[in-house]
Amino acid sequence: MGLLALVAGGMVLLIIGYLLTNAWPAIQAGRLGGFFTDTKWQPGSQRDPRFGVVSMLTASFLVTFLAVALALPVGLACAIFHRFYAPPVLERWNRRMLELLIGVPAVVFGFWGLMVVVPLLIRLAPGTPGQSLLAGSIVLGFMILPIITLTSQAALQAVPAAQLQAAAGLGMGRARTIWCVVLPAAKGGIGTGVLLALARAIGETMAVVLVCGNIPQIPKSLFDPVRPITSTIALEMGYATASHKALLFCAGLILVLCTALLVGWISFRRADSDPGTGGA
Amino acid sequence: MNAPSISLPFPADVPAGSPATGDATACLRVTGLTVQYRGFTALRDITIDIPEGEITALVGPSGCGKSSFLHSLNRLTDLVPGCRVTGSIHLADGTEVTHPKADVLTLRGRVGIVFQRPNPFPQSIRRNFEIPLREHGWSKEDIPDRMETVLRQVGLWNEVHDRLHKSAIALSGGQLQRLCIARALALEPAVILFDEPCSALDPLASGVVEDLIHSLRGQLTIVIVTHNLAQARRIADHAAVFWVRDGAGTMVEHGPAARVFSSPADPDAGLYLSGARG
Question: Do B169 and A277 make contact, defined as CB atoms within 8 angstroms?
Answer without folding.
Answer: yes
